[in-house]
Amino acid sequence: MIRQTWLFAASESDGPPVSKSIHQLFEALPGVLRLEYGAISSRSTGQIRAAAILDVYFSDEDAMNAAYACAEGRRISREVMNNAAAVLDVLIIDNPDSMSDGSH
Predict the structure, then answer these.
(1) How far is CA 85 from CA 9, 10, 56, 98, in A?
(2) What span, in angstroms and rounded, lies between the C-alpha atoms of 25 and 13?
(3) How far, in Å, CA of 54 to CA of 27, rounded?
(4) Residue 42 scores a pLDDT above 70
């Protein structure tokens, strides 16, 4: 499984850091297994400036690449990046469920 984590800056308005429209864009992305959104409520060091995180899960790297390579994926990517001021970083995490098998 692949988790793609999008870190978003605080909104310039008093609204949520990730607008409902961006969340809906990712819902329409082909091959997405699930989405998880979280607003950051506190920070221990203040080093991370993100105000929100959106995790997008795919079955594997091929599924993620195919999602963004298709016409709908390219359209969604363009729309998200039109809000690039809000995107701080994008992380790709391979096999986030590896700890669930009891190994440490």
Answers:
(1) 8, 10, 20, 33
(2) 20
(3) 11
(4) yes
End-to-end CA distance of the chain: 18
Q: How many CB atoms lie within 10 A of CB 2?
A: 19
**Are the C-beta atoms of 60 and 2 separated by less than 8 Å?**
yes
**For residue 52, which phi and psi values (nearest 5 degrees)?**
-155, 155
| Residue 45, SS3 per DSSP | coil
Q: CB neighbours (10 Å) of residue 71? A: 8
Contact between residue 7 and residue 89 where contact means Cβ atoms under 8 Å apart: yes
Mean pLDDT value of segment 69-88: 85
pTM of the model: 0.80
Distance CA 26, CA 77 (A): 9
Q: Which helix (H) or strand (E) holds 38?
A: strand 34-39
Q: Residues, the chain, total?
A: 104
